[in-house]
UniProtKB/TrEMBL annotation, chain A:
CDD domains noted in UniProt: R_hydratase_like (cd03441)
Gene3D superfamilies for this protein: Hotdog Thioesterase (3.10.129.10)
Organism from which the protein derives: freshwater metagenome
Domain FAS1-like dehydratase, residue spans: 6-102
Pfam family name, one: FAS1_DH_region
SUPFAM superfamilies found in the cross-reference section: Thioesterase/thiol ester dehydrase-isomerase (SSF54637)
Protein name according to UniProt: Unannotated protein
TrEMBL record, chain B:
Chain ranges of the MaoC-like domain: 5-100
Gene Ontology molecular functions: fatty acid synthase activity
Family annotation (InterPro entries): Fatty_acid_synthase, HotDog_dom_sf, MaoC-like_dom
GO cellular component: fatty acid synthase complex
Name of this chain's protein: Unannotated protein
Originating species: freshwater metagenome
Source organism phylogeny: unclassified sequences, metagenomes, ecological metagenomes
PANTHER family linked: (3R)-HYDROXYACYL-ACP DEHYDRATASE SUBUNIT HADB (PTHR43841:SF3), 3-HYDROXYACYL-THIOESTER DEHYDRATASE HTDX-RELATED (PTHR43841)
SUPFAM superfamilies: Thioesterase/thiol ester dehydrase-isomerase
A Gene Ontology BP annotation from the UniProt entry: fatty acid biosynthetic process
Length: 127, 133
């Protein structure tokens, strides 16, 4: 179970993710997108999902029981090849409903001081 | 894009989802959860069969939105994963996406997106904000 004392805390990432043209092309190919100048709108999840799991690995959250409840993106500018992005993840809320934990996590992708994309994921940890 | 008007219905498009696409999405996104690839595993955790990544369904809805405005024009995008998309072996499951314009203001249009499989909604509260300047 998530350590409730961590609600509100931000876990800053140290690792930079270099966005490659190949990774944009692979994501675009899945959805049939032919414009490779910018990343598709949900591309950020390919960085934030794994990064948030790493950043929150000691939070008590049981990732093996997680079901994705909802997802939101705010895209301040499109991600492009060559971007060097750092992810930070914040546990915005946690509650228990019918025995399931409902945890809301915001992950921000920054390029230097510029906020590029914010993602919000609601995770349901099944009882 | 200046032709978008409140209440305008944007035509439905169909996106086939099959097992090969799930593998491609797993590789592209890094989400290698076996419930999206391994039938035996999916059934062992109580699912009827392999299910699509919710984020794949959302990515395909993102393609629908990008086709209206261009990839670079999508400012906000959200959805709830209300029903799993079951993908049996050897089948193409048709994900059907349409949208309605709910607001047009200051160069931004808001869309309500509908995503269905066999006429059952698989995304809830799916919304996008696109720039059309």
């Amino acid at each position: 179970m998530l350590n409730g004392e961590l609600v509100g805390r931000t876990f800053p990432g140290a690792e930079t993710t270099l966005v490659t043209q190949e990774s944009i092309a692979a994501f675009a190919a899945v959805v049939g997108e032919t414009n490779l100048d910018v990343a598709p709108p949900t591309y950020a999840i390919s960085i934030t999902l794994n990064q948030s799991q790493t950043l929150l690995q000691d939070s008590g959250l049981d990732w093996t029981r997680v079901v994705h409840g909802d997802q939101r993106f705010e895209i301040f500018r499109p991600i492009v090849a060559g971007d060097k992005l750092i992810c930070s993840s914040t546990i915005e809320s946690a509650r228990v409903m019918a025995g399931n934990e409902i945890v809301s996590i915001r992950s921000d992708l920054h390029s230097g001081s510029e906020l590029v994309v914010s993602t919000w994921s609601t995770l349901v940890v099944r009882a | 894009m200046s032709t978008l008007e409140i209440g305008q219905e944007l035509g439905a498009k169909s996106y086939p989802i099959n097992r090969a696409l799930l593998v491609a999405y797993a590789n592209a996104s890094g989400d290698q959860n076996p419930i999206h690839q391994n039938e035996e595993f999916a059934k062992s955790v109580g699912l009827p069969d392999v299910i699509a990544h919710g984020m794949l369904t959302m990515a395909l809805a993102g393609k629908y939105v990008s086709d209206i405005a261009g990839c670079a024009a999508v400012k906000e995008f959200s959805a709830r994963f209300t029903k799993p998309v079951v993908v049996p072996a050897g089948a193409d499951v048709a994900l059907v996406i349409s949208a309605k314009v709910t607001s047009v203001e200051d160069g931004l249009a808001k869309l309500d997106i509908t995503a269905t499989v066999d006429e059952v909604k698989v995304l809830g509260m799916a919304k996008a904000t696109i720039s059309f300047l």
